[in-house]
Amino acid sequence: MIIPETAGDTGMHELSIMSNVLDIVLEHAKKNGAARVVKVNLRIGHLSDIIPDWAQTYFDMLSKDTIADGAALDIERVPVSIRCHACGHEHTFPDKKWSFTCVKCDSSDIELLQGREFSITSIEIT
Fold it and tell me: pLDDT tens digits for 6-60?
């Protein structure tokens, strides 16, 4: 296996994760008698540090010569949402400009509601 030199630590992170995703995909495809995996639908939070382009690149590399070869990754990005324990305000950050203090009262007594997800939501097979 040849790993691109530009991968750095981030790329290696995706490599390990996508290896696990492929294992899960192949296991479920086999259990369901699949001839081919067409698409893998993922739900990934903004805080997960997964870069979609790297995820697809490594999935393509790892799935070569398997029934998942050529399968597309459809990635739903999940924004960061917090709830303030001090005032009860809930806020969702639509992009990566999140803050871990309440946008309403500036309290740091917050709870993370979403943004760290990483799951396979479905697999499309033939």
Answer: 444 445 678 999 999 999 999 999 999 999 999 999 999 999 888 889 999 999 9
Token look-up 């396979």 returns 120
What is this structure's pTM? 0.82
Amino acid at 105: C
1 exposed, middle or buried (CB, 10 Å; 0-12, 13-18, 19+)?
A: exposed
Q: By the 8 A CB rule, do 67 and 31 touch?
A: no
Domain map of the chain by residue range? 11-125
Contact indicator for 105, 84 with CB cutoff of 8 Å: yes
CATH architecture label of 11-125: 2-Layer Sandwich (3.30)
CB proximity list for 4: less than 8 A, separation 6 or greater: 11, 57
